[in-house]
Amino acid sequence: MEKRFYVYILASRRNGTLYVGMTSDLARRIEEHKSGAVPGFTSEHGVKTLVHYEVYDDAENAILREKRLKKWNRDWKLRLIEKENPSWRDLTELLNC
Questions:
Q1: First-to-last C-alpha distance (Å) of the chain
Q2: What is the domain partition of the chain in residue ranges?
Q3: DSSP letter at 91?
Q4: Which residues, including other chains, have CB under 8 Å from residue 33's CB and lie 6 or more apart?
Q5: Which whole-number Å values give the CA distances from 6 to 27, 44, 94, in the listed order?
Q6: pLDDT score, position 93
Q7: pLDDT tens digit string along 22-68?
Q8: In the list 22, 36, 66, 76, which could disulfide-bond 72, CB 3.0-4.6 Å?
Q9: From CA 4, how far away is CA 40, in angstroms rounded?
């Protein structure tokens, strides 16, 4: 089985605080965010809802995408989320990692 890499965006609520991250185990990482297991930005700001994610076959492209998204302005990130997930539902249930 080929390893996959994920770039994701979490939100505290619709139009709330956003967080962009990258991981090779999205289900585990989202659970860590939701449970507050890792202290830091997401636990301090209640950022727990998976509102966007992308899948990559190699770490290099995933890292590049994460860095680009982090540099995007807020409006661009909001448009990206709204394009694929206009209701801002939690996509955790859709994970097929």
A1: 11
A2: 5-89
A3: G
A4: 10, 19, 42, 43, 47, 48
A5: 10, 23, 14
A6: 87
A7: 999 999 999 999 998 888 999 999 999 999 999 999 999 999 999 99
A8: 76
A9: 25
Contact indicator for 62, 25 with CB cutoff of 8 Å: no
The tokens describing 30, both together, are 């989202």
Q: Give CA–CA dist 33/42, Å, rounded.
A: 7
As a dihedral over the C-alpha atoms of residue 65, residue 67, residue 68, residue 70, rounded to 10 degrees, the angle is: 120
The CATH H-level superfamily of 5-89 is GIY-YIG endonuclease (3.40.1440.10)
Closest among 81, 87, 69, 90 to 21, alpha carbons compared: 69
